[in-house]
Amino acid sequence: MRSYVVLISIVAALGGLLFGFDTAVISGTLNFIQPYFGLSEAGLGWTVSSLLFGCIAGVFMAGKAGDHYGRKKVLMFAALLFFVSAVGSASAHSLVFFLVARVLGGLAVGVASILSPMYIAELAPAKYRGTLVSLNQLAIVVGILVAFFSNYILVGTGENNWRWMLLVMAAPAVLLFFSLFLVPESPRWLVARNRNKEALDVLIKTSGEEFAHAELKEINETLKNQEESTFSELFSPKIKPLLFIGIILAVFQQITGINTIMYYAPKIFANVGQSNDSALLQTILIGGTNLIFTLVAMVLIDRYGRRMLIIIGSAGMTLMLAGLSVLFFTNHTSSVLVLVFILGYIAFFAASLGPALWVVAAELFPNRLRSKGMSVAIVALWIACTIVTITFPIMLERLSGGITFLIFALICLANLLYVWRFVPETKGKTLEELEREFANVKM
Predict the structure, then answer these.
(1) Nearest CA among 370, 272, 352 for reference residue 307
(2) How far apart are CA 292 and CA 351, in angstroms?
(3) Does domain 230-443 correspond to CATH entry 1.20.1250.20?
(4) Could you tell me if 249 and 124 are in contact, meaning their C-beta atoms sit under 8 angstroms apart?
(5) For the segment 406-423, what is each residue's pLDDT rounded down to a tens digit?
(6) pLDDT for 156-168, tens place per residue?
């Protein structure tokens, strides 16, 4: 694998790192911003979810802007938004100012969630594309862990500790912006702008001169097909079942409760009597578990298949959340037991539904409809994430932890049954084989 390609992928994956950091950093600030801004439980849910409203808009913006201005330039714009969001939210003295800054960060997250993996895929040689694109998912998990760790380090910095927690994001945002000057534009975008010579130069550096000319021809053919595709084709009799699978899996990934843990873990631990310092320390264990089992998934997903991983993971998630529910029902909420079940849940999610959703979504659709199909699925994911984020603190307050986690356990069980019944295996098959097989998929 050429070091130049690795450099490009690492730079682009910084967008994923900022994606992970920005979505997770809010968890460490909850117990400080809630009294500072005088937020109710419902108000806290809306405040945390403000970033997610920006995410939905960012996903819609990313595709069109990326096609018009180029992947690289729009990623640079996203880096600037990350920086403005970090500085703005850290310096906010009013709730409105804070929310605006978080929405801007959400726009950047939405852009990064589409363009970072797309940019890597369009520059990576086919032989290494899967490995290199997976760097983006790994970077997201690393970003989450960095957010948890920095929150713990900064919790003792005084009454403005939450401001420092949010400001940390400015550093990787600056790094992403200037690093993008070192990498080229996507050859696919260059060909679409009739800049074939520049595209060929990039392909020679990434794939070698031996394959560059053939790859340039393939990009031209693919672009021609993509230009002829429309969103309405997603609802054709052949593609609609695949679209529904992508949407339903994306929604299940969120409503099984993952971001209730990622965003609200310190609040959950505080509810069982933990101090802020102890709660933030335990979130580092959550981030570390997430990282380790994401690596496990990267090793297993091509060996045992996406479907089997999701089924096993969903079963484990069901058991862990059911156990957590029992602890709350029986008032045996010692910090050790709660932590064990939460870490177990994170491990099963990170080794299955977390990364597998992105892989399956990328494999479901024909080449010429892949970006459109993924965009619709990812918008559904962010909408589901927003709803769960808003409602979780209200559920925890009004329904109790026992009922809340039991609901999420039942959703995990429903996901298992859905995947068992409707989701086909995609491991080890060419895109042509998958396209023929998916022609017979029924809902």
Answers:
(1) 352
(2) 9
(3) yes
(4) no
(5) 999 999 999 999 999 888
(6) 888 889 999 999 9
